[in-house]
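Fold this: LapA family protein
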Amino acid sequence: MLDLMLKFASSILQMNLRDHHDIPFALPLVFAAVLGFILGFIILRFIGNEQKEDAKQEN
């Protein structure tokens, strides 16, 4: 499964992710930033929905 994911990511990014010499230095930092943004957006979305539900229940 990991091999399949690396194959797809390698073809999308046009680099061999299996070879650590071919990966740019900042690529893990970019992946971490993108993943953090996505997770943060999802978490904040759920928190916002809970606050809306709480406000509706109080009225």
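The longest helix spans residues 27-58. The mean pLDDT is 81.
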